[in-house]
Amino acid sequence: MADAKTQEQALLELRNRIDGIDERIGQLISERARCAQEVAEVKNASAEGRALYYRPEREAQVLRKVMERNEGPLSNEELARLFREIMSACLALEQPVKVAYLGPEGTFTQQAALKHFGQSAVSLPFSAIDEVFREVEAGAVNYGVVPVENSTEGVVSHTLDNFMSSNLKICGEVELRVHHNLLVSDVTNVNSISRIYSHGQSLAQCRKWLDSHYPKAERVAVSSNAEAARRLKGEWNAAAIAPAKAAEIYGLNILAEKIEDQPDNSTRFLIIGTQVVPASGHDKTSILVAMRNQPGALHNLLEPFHRHEIDLTRVETRPSRTGVWTYVFFVDFNGHMDDPVIRATLDEVSSRVADLKVLGSYPKAVL
């Protein structure tokens, strides 16, 4: 009996400590929110209505500091996620951020938008990547979120093609670990599945699993994983590959989890907007280069980066839309365009190619 009372007393003391900590946390969050409101007032007074409330480089710096100061037991990613939501809520007090993403609701792109901007952002789905670009260009939203590459299936060509004709800038990036699930509805006969819906890339990322478990099922590519999930209602012989969020939104059941062939499968998304982002200290730059079809063209493009010891993270080729040049290169590399060595390298590259367009310098993905 004494041991039980001692245990109960210990639990009571711990709960009282937690209550006191929660009170202090609430007070500090309120204090931070009031500071955010004061920041908005200062910006409005000095910018005459043209204030930038969301600063990608500032948010990246804050999240990095959060992780550097982390003493555990929460992981760096979990602690940074909590702070992201605090910053999102505080930013909404200044001015809610409107974000367009490749929809419909329940896609991985929506998950990327929420991961980057937090739950307090106003996120709006659009059915095509070029629509996301148009909404940002028209000023209807502040930013857009579009997929650009997958670790298994490679580049998303529609995103790269839109940069050829757009003046938008890349303001940030998001890396999202992608887990695919096989979803069914309440009316599905799980022993008679003969059709599986999903986005083409998702079908490709689960190819081996499907070959093993549903070798005879028809694989139907649709516009998005969320659209695949939406189609299941009323189809007794169909399933869909989609994220767990889609199952929640469309009232479906998860028949099999994490069916992607590569356990480290991830997708990179870009944040597109109109602003030029200052250096955050850990940045990446993306450029578009038009080349003439002549011997040594690729060497001429890459040699200055090698000589200046600049780390290239991606080089992609796309056919030119204009017909004037044979092809264009999309190049990502570490560093900010305001760095002297980056400026010197880009000046040299510019003199060697038909055209060079800086798509943006932006903070590397933090989470």
TrEMBL record:
What is a GO molecular function of this protein?
prephenate dehydratase activity
The record, for Gene3D superfamilies, names: 3.30.70.260, Chorismate mutase, Periplasmic binding protein-like II
Question: Where does it reside?
Answer: Cytoplasm
The chain positions of domain Chorismate mutase read 5-98
Q: Indicate the segments annotated as coiled coil, or none if absent.
A: none
- Residues annotated as transmembrane: none
- Pathway of action: Amino-acid biosynthesis; L-phenylalanine biosynthesis; phenylpyruvate from prephenate: step 1/1; Metabolic intermediate biosynthesis; prephenate biosynthesis; prephenate from chorismate: step 1/1
Alphabetically sorted, this entry's keywords are: Amino-acid biosynthesis, Aromatic amino acid biosynthesis, Cytoplasm, Isomerase, Lyase, Multifunctional enzyme, Phenylalanine biosynthesis
Any keyword Amino-acid biosynthesis? yes
Pfam families registered for this protein in UniProt = ACT, CM_2, PDT
Question: What's its catalytic activity?
Answer: chorismate = prephenate; prephenate + H(+) = 3-phenylpyruvate + CO2 + H2O
Report the EC code(s) recorded for this entry: 4.2.1.51, 5.4.99.5
Start and end of every ACT domain? 286-363
> Where would I find the Prephenate dehydratase domain in this sequence?
98-274
Instruction: Identify the main location.
Output: cytoplasm
* Cross-referenced InterPro entries: ACT-like_dom_sf, ACT_dom, Chor_mutase/pphenate_deHydtase, Chorismate_II_sf, CM_dom_sf, CM_II_prokaryot, G/b/e-P-prot_chorismate_mutase, Preph_deHydtase
Report the function annotation for this chain: Catalyzes the Claisen rearrangement of chorismate to prephenate and the decarboxylation/dehydration of prephenate to phenylpyruvate.
Could you tell me which NCBIfam families the record lists for this protein? CM_P2 (TIGR01807), PRK11898.1 (NF008865)
Entry protein name: Bifunctional chorismate mutase/prephenate dehydratase
Species assigned in the record: Gilvimarinus algae
